[in-house]
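FYI - complex with adenosine-3',5'-cyclic-monophosphate, inputs then prediction.
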Amino acid sequence: MERTLVLLKPDALQRGLVGTILTRFEAKGLKLIALKLRCFSPSLLEQHYAVHRERPFFKSLVEYMSSGPVVALVLEGKDAIAVVRRLVGATNAREADPGTIRGDFGMSFSNNLVHASDGPESAEFELGLWFPEAAEICEWDPCDLSWRYNVAEELA
Ligand code: CMP
């Protein structure tokens, strides 16, 4: 099982899309194992987006992400990082495929509703940054796990 970090950005909250977006992840069969809503500090967001520090949009990205509440969550599942990236869609919401979260609900490149870790290394870094305490993660077994996956082939 793999874990990935997802952020519901301030535009998702302002536009009342938190429940709708969470439903996409839940309905897919991903397991929610941590969730918190907070106005996070510019310094945390600068660390989170440090790889973009030299990009021209870095300052406005940090301002946007610290302009209001963000929901941070951890999802778990087989190949969760790639599965979540496909559900979220392309960075530019205007070009994101219909059926993806950004493709269905967004019109902006920068205000694109959701962030999701883009690979195992960034997931490890981001999970440690946003959920540093082990107690924030809840280990639990969905009662229908053996129906979400083929036990013999995928959970052996
Ligand atoms: P995210 O997937 O969180 O990763 C970096 C973020 O930078 C991206 O979503 C957008 O919110 C933002 N961004 C703004 N402009 C650009 C751009 N030109 N290229 C990539 N990301 C951008």
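Residues 52, 57, 61, 91, 109-110, 112, 115 surround adenosine-3',5'-cyclic-monophosphate (CB under 6 Å). The first helix runs from residue 10 to 14.
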